[in-house]
Every structure is written in C-alpha cells, then in structure tokens.
Specification:
8-stranded antiparallel beta sheet, 7-stranded antiparallel beta sheet, 1 helix, 41% strand, globular
Length: 291
C-alpha cells in the first residue's frame, strides 16, 4: 500500500471511529504504529516447552483453592489443569464437569487464569504484548491484564495501584463479535471502585476467533496507550498512571456468580454456547522496557 493510500485509509477509519463513538459503537483501529525502537525485550514466554513453565506462571487463586486445585471464579472455576502447551501455544480450555473436577462435588465450568505473581515477574512501565486467538462463544471471555494487589489502596487514584486490562473479549454474542475492549480499574472492587473503558475497538482484518492478533499496552509515567496489531486504538491517564510494579495475568472467565453460570456482559449463559469446547490460544507474551 502506498503512503497516500495508507493516509487515506487512516483518515477514513478516523472518521468512521468518530461517528461510531457518537452512536455508542466500537471504533476501528486507526492510530499510529507503536514505536518498538524505544524498547528492549526483557521477559517473554513463547510457550515452546512441553508444559506450562512454573518458574514463569502460577495459577491465579491458588491461595483459595480446594484439594483438587479448584477456585470459584464468577460463574465457573479456575483450575491449573485447564492449561496445557500444544504445538508451541498455551491453551486455556473451558470444560464442563458434571460431578466437579476429579469428583469434588462442584459441578460446573472449569477454566484457568495464570499469573506471574509470587516473585516470578513484575515490572513498572514499558510495553506489554500478547499474541493470541480468542475463545469462541457466548458466556465467557478471555483477557490479558496487568495486576497488583495494591489496586485495593483507596484514596490516591490509580497511582499507587491499578488493574490494567490490555484486552477483554466479551462481545461474541452480538453484532460486535469482533470487538475487544480495554479498561483501567482502581480503588479496590467495593464501594470505592473506579473504572473507565480505555478503548472499545472492532478488528477489521484478522478474525480474532480464528486468527492471531496482537494486543499491547505502552505504560509510562503519564498514561496508558493501547494497541491492536501495533496500531493505536486508545489511550488514557484515568486515575493517574500507576507507579508501582505490576504482574501479568492471562485468564478465561465464565459469566455468573458463585460458580453458577448466568447472563452477563458476555451475553447469555455459557449453557447456550454452541461453540464449546473452545480454547484461548496464546502464541506468546512479551514484555519490553524503555531503553
């Protein structure tokens, strides 16, 4: 594509995104390319081994898990056994166990979240990117997010702790099915909780449920800048940019409460998901710091 054509396409997408925002619809990627020349790679998992690398990832929620390693999360459960390495990719499966996992008496849908907590990896500022294929169907969503327990601190905005959702995929159920979003959360998850959607973007090239796409965030001392396939889709300084180290999390969640599926922002209950079984497939996670 010539530079003139690129410029024309960029302008057209910018106009389309403007009108989409007015009518409450997801916008289209149309911003600048991320400048990777200012970063250097400092941490990565290419998922090339035979099993999940326990020196890099632990199961989020392990501290509250039962004897089978299961932990209730929204309308389902998290369990590390739902993660595997296949053909150079991380697969996070979502499966139904009528008698519960290993007969634990907790029937329901089981998936997983992996994190880099407990001294495995954390970083303040830089560029964080995941290349993946999203899980299909209603009632569940995948995510790549940055997290610190300090998000529970109240009264200083997000400066002393925030949840940074690089992407979440909860829009399969309607005309926005090729849409992902990102958000910032701070001041805990109770009555003081504050959140803001940083972007809401419809992918216009690769089908995110069939093909790989990259989702990234540049986090600096002033703001967060979000990218899809290296193209800027949004930015925010909501709450003030976090100034403390954050861990990485990859997750799949089922809509509902107390392990019982229900309608949620991911659409109808997962019980109505005709695409099951479906996996969240991750090619790599890479983290860069400023040179």
């Amino acid at each position: 594509m010539t530079k003139f054509a690129q410029f024309f396409v960029s302008i057209a997408l910018a106009i389309a995104s403007f009108f989409c925002s007015i009518f409450g619809l997801p916008t289209y990627p149309h911003g600048k390319q991320v400048d990777m020349n200012k970063f250097e790679l400092v941490w990565a998992d290419e998922f090339d081994g035979d099993t999940v690398d326990s020196t890099k990832w632990g199961c989020h929620g392990d501290w509250a898990a039962d004897s089978t390693g299961s932990y209730v999360r929204k309308g389902g459960y998290w369990n590390r056994e739902m993660c595997s390495i296949q053909d150079g990719n991380l697969h996070i499966a979502t499966k139904y166990f009528p008698d519960g996992y290993k007969g634990n008496g907790k029937p329901g849908w089981y998936s997983c979240a992996l994190d880099t907590m407990n001294g495995r990896f954390e970083q303040t500022y830089g560029y964080f990117e995941c290349r993946c294929i999203l899980p299909k169907g209603v009632g569940l969503w995948s995510a790549f997010w940055l997290y610190t327990g300090e998000v529970g601190n109240i009264g200083n905005g997000g400066i002393d702790g925030a949840e940074i959702d690089v992407f979440e995929s909860a829009y399969y159920s309607n005309k926005r099915s090729n849409t992902v979003s990102g958000a910032i959360h701070y001041d805990g998850y109770g009555e003081n909780h504050r959140q803001k959607k940083a972007y809401w973007s419809r992918l216009t090239a690769n089908n995110p449920y069939e093909e790989y796409n990259t989702y990234g965030v540049e986090w600096n001392e002033k703001e967060y800048i979000f990218y899809i396939n290296g193209v800027k889709v949004g930015k925010t300084d909501f709450g003030g940019a976090c100034q403390v180290p954050e861990n990485l999390i990859l997750s799949v969640e089922v809509g509902g409460e107390n392990g019982i599926p229900a309608q949620s922002w991911a659409g109808p209950s997962i019980a109505e998901n005709t695409e099951m079984p479906t996996d969240f497939i991750v090619d790599y996670v890479r983290v860069y710091q400023y040179k």
